[in-house]
Amino acid sequence: MLWHFLVLVLAAIIAVAGAANQELEESELAALKYVNDLEREILARNYEATEASWAYESNLIEENLKQRNEIQTRNANYFKEVARELRKFDYKSFKDADLKRKIEKMTDLGYAALSEEKFSQLLDAISGMSENYAMAKVCDYKIREKCDLSLEPELTEILATSRDPEELKHYWIEWYNAAGAPTREDFQKYVSLNKEAAELNNFTSGAEAWLHAYEDESFEEQVDAAIEEIRPLYEQIHAYVRHRLRERYGEDVVSEKGPIPMHLLGNMWAQTWDNVADITTPFPDSRQLDVTEEMVRQGYNPIQMFEMGDEFFVSLNMTKLPESFWQKSILEKPTDGRELVCHASAWDFYRTDDVRIKQCSRVNMEDFFTVHHELGHIQYFLQYQHQPSMYREGANPGFHEAVGDVLSLSVSTPKHLQTIGLLKDFTLDEDAKVNQFYRSGLSKLVFLPFAYTIDKYRWGIFRGEIQPHEYNCKFWEMRTKFSGIEPPVVRTEKDFDAPAKYHVSSDVEYLRYLVSYIVQFQFHRSACELAGEYVKGDPEKTLNNCDIYQSVNAGNAIKEMLAMGSSKPWPDAMEVLTGQRKMSANALLEYFQPLYDWLVVENKRIGAYIGWKSSDKCKPE
Q1: CA distance 91 to 96
Q2: What positions carry a catalytic annotation?
Q3: Which residues have CB under 8 Å from 69's CB, separation 6+?
Q4: Which residues on neighbouring strands pair with residue 486, listed in sequence order?
């Protein structure tokens, strides 16, 4: 009798389980159909929103801003409703891993989780900051009543070429005053709504929301470790540059052991220092690797620069730019008087082959490399455009930034510049090699602590660790701690200097750039191996003289990684090209090992102080 009862109970359990499984299977099929049916509508809405953003950033007028915000608000409500429907499914129990991944992406609403009123307020706050940045004008150093100078191209060129510390100080102060303090009210509104949106998406703060994109709970620790890993090399190049600037400008301008006054470093934010390579270079009598004059002599124009970038990708068996790219992109600053966001950017319009770049290009070597960087974004768009809408993005935010820079690492070699006829009769002797590594270090290496600070600072604000009354001095405290730089004049809490950087004013997460500057060397090393251009231990085939131009093997491997979009976690994508699943500064340090070896010996010889003392250039009151 007991046995018979147990059989009945077991049969009942099996029946219930079977019914539950059938119900789950039916639910999973219903969810799959719902997600698939959304695709056409999502692509159409993404296209409409991107067109509106393009129209506004290409012509900063109120009508375009209003239309962009209306469309973004409408789309936010739509995606909120989609997420609400998807959350009705028990999708975490689904067997289809791809379906679960799609739903997880679609239920993370970001700012769209806010109410319509608050979402609109957030857009207004960000628009206010970015518009202030784009339209900021400063007064001429010599003609003070002439106040029509823009960041691009005037201030950027002056910071890069002037060697008058007083002139540089003037423009630094003018820019930071114009682009920073006026945004404080909008910034505070933005911080408040950022926190609310993060909590609505079940994150403790905006910092965790941003870090979630990297799909690794230990990722912040990986980033911290990478910065510590490169610090000895950074301290060496910092010490050398400070010593050379002190020789030029004197003790009154540059102290022996203090932070470097940032206005002397050739860039408004001191994020890269390659513009002062000409006055700090180790071997000035050796020919410098700068092809700007040759580009001008040969009559280069922005269109030609993009055509050459396109040809590089095609040589790797990658996708040629579609004709519509040339018809719809803005590759030079318009001369019709309109205000626009000049910051270089690449755009995916969610239609087949509809990709564009907006860049106020100038004919010089720096912009030539930027062209390849932006075309890297475009190539990524083209390779994953077959993916569903929710996967049409980089494997993580840093991958997108790294792709074009992998090309730039090849394009910037003397080998490649000779191949394309921009460098003639150039002998890469030992002195020239040191100069080459040094210039690359001023561009690639010194950027890392800057990029780290921009988001470390904002994470502190989002987490409530940095309060409004200390926004400015905490910013400069961190810039000094990690980069060893300081402002040229004393700043106070009446100033607000972080939004004088585009990405802070425009709510663009910045960790992606740090990640890209590390993983690009991992990508580069693997691509160079595939191209037969790099063999570990071979002095003739080093990472820093590798050019993957015309290597179909390297191109096919890169293409395979790009085609995945974000359909898999980023370690899976990285593994396709590199065989590795973790971010590591190892390849970067290998690339710069010759520079490190030289700097250690040279700094000892000239008695350069390693490290820096604290700064007194920000006062709480």
Answers
A1: 9
A2: 374, 503
A3: 120, 123, 124, 127
A4: 261
